[in-house]
């Protein structure tokens, strides 16, 4: 075995071990319960095998091309997230480049790790489908595994190129933000693509799928579908393209990092401002707190990547109900957006791990600072709700738009107050991890009741049927919000319990 292969194997084994730990402890925790994962794979395999066994003909080439495109987008998003961590955030890259290990071995190992991560990310859905067509139709689909491996390598290389381009344009920190947003947007766009077409007329639906097939064929995914079927010429072309892309990617990475581009990871993404607006405490500490928390929310990649796509997921629900209520269905949607995201973002603004210490050390009244954090969490959701209400007003229902915005703002204020009244210091990376956050079941129940009452009441008023019940629900919701501000007071979070006296050898008994 050559020295290059030995060194590549050594680096790859270590990186794969780190990848496995990330899969076990990450957000998805896909390897935490082996029994549950095996059961899910077994059920999916059974469904896939039964489905393809009873089909009389093979799937159309366009459908297979669309599926390969779907999994390709999933792999690309996962690869971009991995690239920014492997090449710019992991602390061992400087040590590896300065070690006697070959640079080619390091870069080949990193590309292999990214390809493995992309391969594993699509395995839960792609593995049952592939095995189903192998058993149900033809053993020639075994070459789908070769196509799968090649597609994961191409997706990893594409993720590297896009990451390097974003880093050059934006800097490492800002590139990390936009990479996570782009990955989330790709996943949401695939979801929307398959959901929105369900609400088209039959003729438009046929044209929609025809356009998708044309696009997939233009992007080359039809060649992937043919190689997945085992056509020798397509397999040869795919292997050649994969090898060429991997070679060019490794060469570009070597050129990039050996010329010192990695130093951009410690450089500021933009030059500091020498002039312009200055911030003074004479403007008000509460105002400064509001704008500070608002900037942190806007710049936080975790929040942007997990909350912004949620707005896109509401669109299919709007299209589904539009045929029953028209544009007025935007009224309850505006209320839901205001309440749901205000509660989440106010919780994020208040529960940062250093938030409680800063509040206690501040000379400003504690209630004022908590209200400023609550307002920062409500600002963006209320802005999105206002846009929907303006659309309702433009379609001839201004009073409904005004009622919906007031209802959303009032209900959101009550729910946001529940979030800031009790602060549980939490690391910022774990703020959206429900398994690690110390949330109150009672608070979640109250938020759910207020959300149902507000959205249900505005729905009944918007449709005009049983409007008096809607008015009663809105009145009850308003009383619930008043009760939140009246009976839910600021609660001090106790510090960690002191150690017992035997931990202190010089302590004297009281």
TrEMBL record:
UniProt keyword annotations, A-Z: Membrane, Transmembrane, Transmembrane helix
Transmembrane regions: 30-53, 65-88, 108-130, 142-170, 177-194, 327-350, 371-393, 399-420, 441-461, 467-488
Species this chain originates from: Nibricoccus aquaticus
Domain of life according to the entry: Bacteria
Record-given protein name: Uncharacterized protein
């Amino acid at each position: 075995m050559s020295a290059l292969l030995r060194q590549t194997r050594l680096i790859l084994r270590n990186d794969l071990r780190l990848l496995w730990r990330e899969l076990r402890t990450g957000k998805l925790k896909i390897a935490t319960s082996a029994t549950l994962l095996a059961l899910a794979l077994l059920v999916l395999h059974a469904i896939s095998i039964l489905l393809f066994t009873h089909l009389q003909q093979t799937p159309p080439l366009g459908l297979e091309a669309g599926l390969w495109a779907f999994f390709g987008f999933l792999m690309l998003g996962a690869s971009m997230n991995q690239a920014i961590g492997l090449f710019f955030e992991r602390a061992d890259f400087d040590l590896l480049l300065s070690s006697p290990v070959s640079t080619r071995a390091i870069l080949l190992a990193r590309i292999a790790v990214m390809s493995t991560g992309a391969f594993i990310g699509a395995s839960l859905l792609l593995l049952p489908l592939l095995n189903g067509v192998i058993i149900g139709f033809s053993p020639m689909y075994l070459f789908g595994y070769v196509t799968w491996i090649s597609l994961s390598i191409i997706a990893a290389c594409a993720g590297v190129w896009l990451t390097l381009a974003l880093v050059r344009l934006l800097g490492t920190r800002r590139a990390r933000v936009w990479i996570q947003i782009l990955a989330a947007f790709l996943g949401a766009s695939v979801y929307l693509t398959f959901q929105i077409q369900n609400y088209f007329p039959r003729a438009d639906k046929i044209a929609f799928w025809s356009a998708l097939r044309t696009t997939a064929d233009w992007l080359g995914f039809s060649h992937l579908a043919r190689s997945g079927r085992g056509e020798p010429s397509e397999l040869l072309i795919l292997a050649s393209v994969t090898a060429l892309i991997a070679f060019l990617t490794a060469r570009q990475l070597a050129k990039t990092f050996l010329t010192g581009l990695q130093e951009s990871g410690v450089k500021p993404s933009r030059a500091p401002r020498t002039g312009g607006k200055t911030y003074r405490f004479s403007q008000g500490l509460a105002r400064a707190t509001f704008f500070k928390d608002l900037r942190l929310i806007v710049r936080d990649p975790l929040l942007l990547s997990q909350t912004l796509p949620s707005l896109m997921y509401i669109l299919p629900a709007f299209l589904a109900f539009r045929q029953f209520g028209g544009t007025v269905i935007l009224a309850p949607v505006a209320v839901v957006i205001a309440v749901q995201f205000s509660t989440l973002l106010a919780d994020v603004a208040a529960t940062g791990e250093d938030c409680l210490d800063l509040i206690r050390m501040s000379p400003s009244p504690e209630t004022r600072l908590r209200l400023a954090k609550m307002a920062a969490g409500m600002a963006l959701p209320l802005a999105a709700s206002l846009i929907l209400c303006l659309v309702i007003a433009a379609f001839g229902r201004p009073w409904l738009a005004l009622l919906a915005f007031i209802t959303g703002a009032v209900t959101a204020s009550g729910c946001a107050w529940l979030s800031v009244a009790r602060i549980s210091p939490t690391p910022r990376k774990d703020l959206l991890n429900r398994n690690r956050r110390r949330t109150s079941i009672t608070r979640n129940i109250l938020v759910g009741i207020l959300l149902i009452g507000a959205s249900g009441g505005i729905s009944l008023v918007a449709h005009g049927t049983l409007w008096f019940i809607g008015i009663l629900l809105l009145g009850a919701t308003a009383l619930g919000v008043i009760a939140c501000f009246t009976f839910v007071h600021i609660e001090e979070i106790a510090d960690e319990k002191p150690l017992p006296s035997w931990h202190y050898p010089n302590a004297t008994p009281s």
